[in-house]
């Protein structure tokens, strides 16, 4: 079962998304919160009890503490964190998406997305993939990588980029372009399992937790450039 925690200050969103996800045979709701501060404390309680949520649906704009700060605090815990954060946003909040990914979020969902996309998104993120659709998120990340320079270091260990093999660099560039494992396999004319092996080695060498961090690192180290 995939355990899900929802943080959103709108009761209708919490209840609606919660009911939709709870109706799935492989998903269970383990809690919710009305703001970021409550989300942090709620997730900490579950984690202390040995049952950290697998996925958090995190709104951005909330009272007391916003979703970005809550994401940072949850994912910066001293002990290893298995929880993945999926940011809930609307088109007018897109300026926050890049910062959310920098904070460690595994991707984002638009609040007006179809119900099937919400369910699929939870499963994708739980499986360890970033929710990075090339038609939307790839362009968005590229845009903010260009327009919003930041003094904070990239995620993972960017200094280890030079340890990647030429093939691993190719794979990382295709991840940054928003390609799925299947699309990368087609592009490189290799088996999908081979792609998964390359990705596992890339993540290990660069100390990355998921594809979202891989995209951020690729842009911020200059391995790929917006529009390149």
TrEMBL record:
Residues with the 4-aspartylphosphate modification: 59
SMART domains: HTH_LUXR, REC
One family name in Pfam for this protein: GerE
PROSITE patterns: HTH_LUXR_1, HTH_LUXR_2, RESPONSE_REGULATORY
Matches recorded under InterPro entries: CheY-like_superfamily, NreC/VraR/RcsB-like_REC, Sig_transdc_resp-reg_C-effctor, Sig_transdc_resp-reg_receiver, Tscrpt_reg_LuxR_C, WalR-like
Start and end residues of each HTH luxR-type domain: 157-222
Alphabetical UniProt keywords: DNA-binding, Phosphoprotein, Transcription, Transcription regulation
Domain Response regulatory: 3-126
Source taxon at top rank: Bacteria
Record protein name field: Response regulator transcription factor
